[in-house]
C-alpha cells in the first residue's frame, strides 16, 4: 500500500519536567506509522505498539492517533500539533498547521466523531461541508433551514446546520455553526470563521498556530 509522506511535529511537555517528547511522522499506511521520536532514526510503529512512551492507537493513509502521557493526538498529512501540559497535566487548547507548497493550510478535523479533511478559509463565514461529508458525519441537512448563495456557477442552495462537536488538534468546540452545499462543488471541507473567530491565529512563516480564546 502506498505510504503518504507528511511532515508533522508534535511537542509534548511532561507536567513534572521541562523536557518535551518530540514526534515526527514520516509516513502512514494502514495499521502502521513511520515515526522519528526525539530526532532519532525513523522507526515503524504498529497499532498497539509503544516506543519511548508514544503509543499508536490507530492509523490509515489519512491520519494516525497516538497516545502520549495519557493524552490522545490525531494527526493528518501536513498537520502539526504543539501540546503543552500544565503542572496539573491538562493540555493547552491549540493546534499547529503547516502550509503546503502553495501556501494553503490543510488539516484533519473530527466532526461528530468522523474524520474530515479541511482547508483553512478565513473568507468563509462558517464551517462549510459538502453534502457527501454531511452524510458521512450523520447530519440530516435536508431538514435544516435553507438559504441561497451566489457562486461562479450560479445560485445554489445552502443548508444551515450546527455541528455537535468539531476537533482540530487539541481544540474541541461544541455547537459550531456550519453550512452544507449540495453537489460536487466542494472537494474539501472549509474551516471557516464560525470556528476561527474563537481562535487566536499566529502566523510564523509556513506555520500557523491556532490557540483557543473561548
Features:
7-stranded mixed beta sheet, 2 helices, mainly beta, 5% helix, 214 residues, elongated
The fraction of residues in strands falls at over 45%
Mean of residue pLDDT values:
80
Helical segment tally?
Answer: 2
The top level CATH class name of the largest domain? Mainly Beta
Strands of the largest sheet, in order across it?
4-3-2-1-9-10-19-18
String of helices and strands: EEEEEEEEEEEEEHEEEEHEE
Number of strands: 19
CATH topological fold name of the largest domain: Cathepsin D, subunit A, domain 1
Please explain how this structure is put together.
This protein folds into two domains: 4-92, no CATH class; 106-197, Acid Proteases (Cathepsin D, subunit A, domain 1), CATH 2.40.70. It has helices at 131-137, 193-196, and strands at residues 4-13, 20-29, 32-37, 43-46, 50-51, 54-59, 64-68, 71-75, 79-83, 94-98, 106-111, 114-120, 127-130, 146-151, 154-168, 171-181, 189-191, 199-204, 207-212. The chain has an eight-stranded mixed beta sheet, with no helix packed on it. The longest helix is centred in the middle third of the chain and has 7 residues, at 131-137. The termini are far apart. It is mainly β and 214 residues long. Mean pLDDT is 80; it is low at 1-20 and 80-91. Helix content is 5%, strand content 57%.
What's the structural blueprint in terms of helices and strands?
Blueprint: E1 4-13, E2 20-29, E3 32-37, E4 43-46, E5 50-51, E6 54-59, E7 64-68, E8 71-75, E9 79-83, E10 94-98, E11 106-111, E12 114-120, E13 127-130, H1 131-137, E14 146-151, E15 154-168, E16 171-181, E17 189-191, H2 193-196, E18 199-204, E19 207-212
Parallel strand pairs: 1-9, 12-17, 13-16
Antiparallel strand pairs: 1-2, 2-3, 3-4, 5-6, 6-7, 7-8, 9-10, 10-19, 11-12, 11-15, 14-15, 15-16, 18-19
